[in-house]
Amino acid sequence: MNLFADAFAWILNPGNWEGRNSIPQFIGEHLWYTALAMILASAIAIPLGWYIGHTGRGRDIAVATTGAARALPSFGLLFLFVMIGGVANRDSSVVIVLALLAIPPILAGAYAGFEAIDRRVIDAARSMGMTERQIVARIEIPLGLPLLWGGLRNAVLQVVATVVLVGFVRNATLGYPIVQGIQINRFDQMLGASILIIVLALLLDAIFALLERYATPAGVRVGRTRDHRTSSTRRRAAGGATPASTEKEKSV
Amino acid sequence: MFTARNKGRFALVAAAAGVSLALAGCATGDPLDETPDPTTEPAEPGTSESITVGSQAYYSNEIIAEIYAQALENVGFEVNRQFNIGQRDAYIPALESGEVDLFPEYTGNLLQYYVPDTEATQSDEVYAELQGALPDGLQVLDQSSATDQDSYNVTAEFAAENNLVTIADLAGVEGLILGGNPELEERPYGPTGLADVYGVEVSFDATGDATVDALLQGVVNVANVFSADPRIGENDLVTLEDPEGLFLASNVVPLASADLPQEAIDVINAVSAALTPEGLVAMNVQSTTDEQSPAVIATQWLTENGLI
Amino acid sequence: MTWLLDNVELIGRLTGEHLRLSAIPIVLGFVLSIPLGWVAYRYRLTRGLILTLVGLLYTIPSLALFVLLPAIIGTPFLSEANVVIALTIYAVAIMSRSVADALGSVDPDVKQAATAIGYSSFRRFWAVDFPLAGPVVLAGLRVVAVSTVSLLTIGAAIGIDTLGYLFTNGYQRGIIVSVLTGVVVTVVIALVLDRVLVVIGRALMPWTRASSRSERSGVTRAFTTARKMPEAVS
């Protein structure tokens, strides 16, 4: 447990909280990359996912792409894009790679959210005379929010984990103390940074879990006390995979 | 209908699949090995013992290690390659324990590993002090004239604009950004050394393996490039002179276990004698520009130098 | 292109290493998650605890876990064991949830019928529950397989050379083809492994073959039906 003592000593060392290469700087950079990537990915994946969920078009491609994207090694993609884009553009390359990795879970969350809605509700809305746009805006989007938040949650964890690899191309983010620590044989900063990364990931996970629970209309929340996957047992028992968004993604 | 008979078949197939996968996993290599899986070469008839050669996670170092390996095989040794071990903290213990027998190293960097505050800077001084600093169980063989040491470089334009010949000339320049590996920040010849010895203030950008590109694209204006890097010559980079001896001389030197057979020592010393700075750079060019593999490069060099 | 032609043997060797080191976490993860998932399913009280714990492990980024494990269980940092154990932990984290959910999704009527026929609890688990839970378990196993193959590449950062070596070495030498090849081969292996698992799944669970087709199109059919008949009231 000496190792943990050293790690906490490193975290609590006031010298590491000011000036260049400070812990707050690393945390800030980490969150900055995460935020940029999430915004970019959401801007692309949410509308696209809603479209797929509402019209049913392109679903097979989306499912296949989500599955294949899980196979992409983020480490390799990062180097590849930085090499292609050039060192001068490494920040843009990094954000693009992060967004690429975040799109599949968000996409899945968006369309699965729409698909999980009882068809009878949509039919009822149509029979009431609601236009397609009204159906999407007033019914499908709110009802689809829980699964969408779930997808966003998966995505943010993915991104936070990949941002750690930025330490290989810049002295920024919480990944840098780990990468540097490997080279200069300082386990205290490696472990300290790892602990901070884990705490950050857990915090973000908790925040998004809360959003998943509370940033949805009250009526939707009430109906979700039972896990919807177990409700249709015949469908389950007969076979077929669970919706992509409810499977956790892990590529970093 | 899932009957008891089908259940048996299901369980059997699952068990067989599981066991075969597990066996496939266990069959080759002990997962508790600290070093990567070795590729063994077939032994020639009448061979003596087996020697394990390691290398750093540095392509140039891997080429030298491959040269050692092929030279030893040529005289009948069985060679075990364990390349890309990565950090001194992994391979030094392996060398001391006998897991690895031979490793290409660099005198200056290795000396600083054992004696961080060493004052030696010239090639012979460094070599002499290194011999004394090594623990029992390790030895260094003859050093080569080939060097691959840290050096500060700038582009030709930057040097012309600011009249830069030595590192000291950087002192007046504004907005200096130093590029290099993450470890450079903590090295005595890094930003702190620049400030203490030459009075040069720099900010640091850990560009890592993309350092040369960063220098060429203007992301940094001073870069730590290894002296055997072919891109220095290819891009007309100016290596700043180091009159105060911030950098230690760092020659290629074989680091070996103390009980390496004499025959092996002779072979490796012959290799070290034949290895020149130009030769090393030329091989690095073959690796990066011509994209050739270490084995091909090594064989070619050994043949040209009459060692095979 | 020189690089690619010169290094076919290297790629093959690294692929072999990659498969070797991927196999252990996948198999171990599967095996270890069955009892864990069963406990989570069977004992409602433990379900929350187990799944939360397992979910926490899952949020840890791999490089951080590689650093954390030596500090907790004392594996050497730069070792294969470190990487394999970390990947196994992820595998168990994913699969336990799958197994728990899968077992929970089995129709209780079927279980009651089996008990009525005369199956004991233990035999019923292996003869009825687990096979019926198979498709969901398989889905989880596929995710594990693909994730493991992808994550293993990060081992190159600590010297465990599988296909990840093509990334670090290629980046160092400025050879884009090397990095690209590494990415492509990793993805191909992951997808092939995924297909193999699907085929094995269909072989072991023949009853899923027909239904999987109809289930997928069922959802799309509902969409198109709803769109074509705006006046229909269900």
TrEMBL record, chain B:
Top-level taxon in the UniProt lineage: Bacteria
The keyword Signal appears for this protein: yes
Keywords: Signal
Claim: Nucleus is one of the keywords in the record: no
Sample GO molecular function, one term: transmembrane transporter activity
Gene Ontology cellular component list: ATP-binding cassette (ABC) transporter complex
Comp. bias intervals (Low complexity): 37-47
Pfam families, sorted: OpuAC
Region (Disordered): 29-51
Domain (ABC-type glycine betaine transport system substrate-binding): residue spans on this chain: 50-304
InterPro entries in the record: ABC_Gly_betaine_transp_sub-bd
Residues spanning the signal sequence: 1-24
Protein name: Putative secreted protein
